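2024-03-11 09:14:02 INFO worker-7 job=invfold-0412 stage=load source=structure_tokens
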């Protein structure tokens, strides 16, 4: 099911080098990518982990292409690598959306709730093109794009300890190798700091207290189990495809919400994941329905217990620097935090402060206690006095947004 987009999809930009063209990946590239990457065990073992079937490759590429079409101003995505001399497709390269890489914990930051903004580059070139400098050339182009155009503070790339050629390439590109002490993915990682950002050491680990004394989830929950919260009036559960239309209808029927928060203008199942574009006043953002995997972020439905209908939605995440937020005198400076945004939209018929508090508090506890997030950071429109009041009632502090374009305010809730 798709809603009819009333905001045009934003395509990813193409890049080029002396010998190469980097064009946004599209479904037309499935057969070539399958042949040179996903069906070749020598290439696939270090990129996708194992050989993929053609149908699995199609799902992977379809997912990448969807993200490319909706990347908006964020600028991350996946490119197919073409040689200029013969227009042949020789590989792929991707720039992960700027967030915490959940399978990387650098040893020097293991005790800190604050981590710099980590963005990953991944690449794979067909075996017939190894040893000719193509991967290095494509990676340099993407690094330049990430650092100069997107102003990303640093890149972090988990590396397979058995893949010595990849490690040599990272070192050639200027990455320094560090220990990755993630309990499940322990190994090494390459780190490259943007020269424009001198790098600020995150503060050493501080106590991360919960918003409340008790969490509604066990800290030993299974990460593949969707968390469901129950209050006196509501179930708070993961967003499903059939929820999208009623939730979007609620948003569109609330003019102030549309003006300040936007709405879902496109949503669909892509390779088994519920993805949608949230068209907010600060630009489109790609969001996901709750995946129940790893990071535990996503979009949750507020469901009335009395008639089991959706009455609102809560966005938790994505875990990324808010590009439209600049906080004055931020002690963490250009070191972007392990922070996520938080937004609650509720049907005007039940839009009261007690109902907002009842729906939001379980997810605030979940975010700060169970997920151990450092803080929640959300942009608030200049004229949105109602949201400012509600964020304050939820315990957020309000600061001026110093971003030169977007302005307004920032609501911040520290752990």
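2024-03-11 09:14:09 INFO worker-7 stage=emit residues=415
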């Amino acid at each position: 099911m798709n809603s009819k987009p009333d905001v045009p999809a934003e395509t990813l930009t193409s890049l080029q080098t002396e010998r190469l063209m980097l064009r946004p990946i599209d479904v037309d590239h499935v057969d070539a990518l399958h042949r040179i990457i996903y069906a070749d065990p020598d290439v696939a073992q270090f990129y996708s982990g194992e050989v993929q079937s053609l149908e699995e490759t199609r799902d992977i590429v379809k997912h990448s292409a969807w993200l490319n079409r909706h990347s908006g101003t964020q600028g991350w995505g996946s490119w197919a690598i073409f040689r200029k001399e013969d227009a042949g497709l020789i590989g792929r390269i991707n720039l992960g959306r700027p967030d915490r890489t959940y399978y990387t914990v650098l040893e020097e930051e293991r005790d800190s709730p604050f981590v710099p903004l980590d963005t990953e580059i991944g690449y794979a070139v067909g075996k017939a093109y190894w040893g000719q400098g193509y991967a290095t050339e494509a990676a340099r182009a993407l690094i330049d794009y990430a650092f100069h155009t997107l102003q990303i503070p640093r890149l972090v790339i988990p590396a397979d300890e058995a893949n010595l050629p990849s490690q040599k390439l990272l070192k050639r590109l200027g990455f320094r190798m560090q220990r990755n002490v993630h309990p499940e993915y322990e190994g090494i990682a390459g780190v490259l700091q943007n020269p424009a950002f001198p790098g600020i050491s995150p503060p050493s680990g501080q106590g991360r207290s919960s918003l409340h004394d008790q969490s509604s989830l066990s800290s030993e929950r299974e990460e593949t189990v969707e968390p469901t919260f129950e209050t006196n009036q509501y179930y708070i559960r993961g967003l499903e495809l059939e929820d999208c239309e009623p939730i979007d209808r609620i948003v569109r029927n609330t003019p102030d919400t549309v003006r300040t928060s936007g709405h879902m203008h496109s949503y669909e199942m892509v390779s088994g994941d519920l993805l949608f574009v949230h068209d907010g006043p600060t630009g489109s953002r790609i969001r996901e329905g709750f995946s129940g995997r790893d990071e535990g972020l996503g979009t949750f439905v507020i469901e009335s217990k009395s008639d089991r209908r959706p009455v609102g939605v809560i966005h938790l995440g994505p875990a990324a620097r808010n590009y439209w937020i600049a906080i004055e005198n931020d002690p963490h400076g250009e070191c972007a935090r392990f922070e996520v945004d938080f937004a609650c939209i509720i049907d005007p018929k039940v839009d009261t402060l007690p109902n907002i508090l009842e729906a939001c508090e379980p997810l605030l506890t979940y975010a700060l206690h169970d997920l151990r997030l450092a803080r929640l950071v959300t942009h608030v429109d200049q004229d949105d006095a109602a949201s400012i009041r509600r964020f304050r009632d939820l315990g957020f502090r309000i600061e001026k947004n110093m971003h030169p374009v977007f302005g307004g305010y920032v609501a911040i809730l520290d752990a």
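2024-03-11 09:14:09 INFO worker-7 stage=report msg="DSSP finds nine helices and 20 strands in the chain."
2024-03-11 09:14:10 INFO worker-7 job finished
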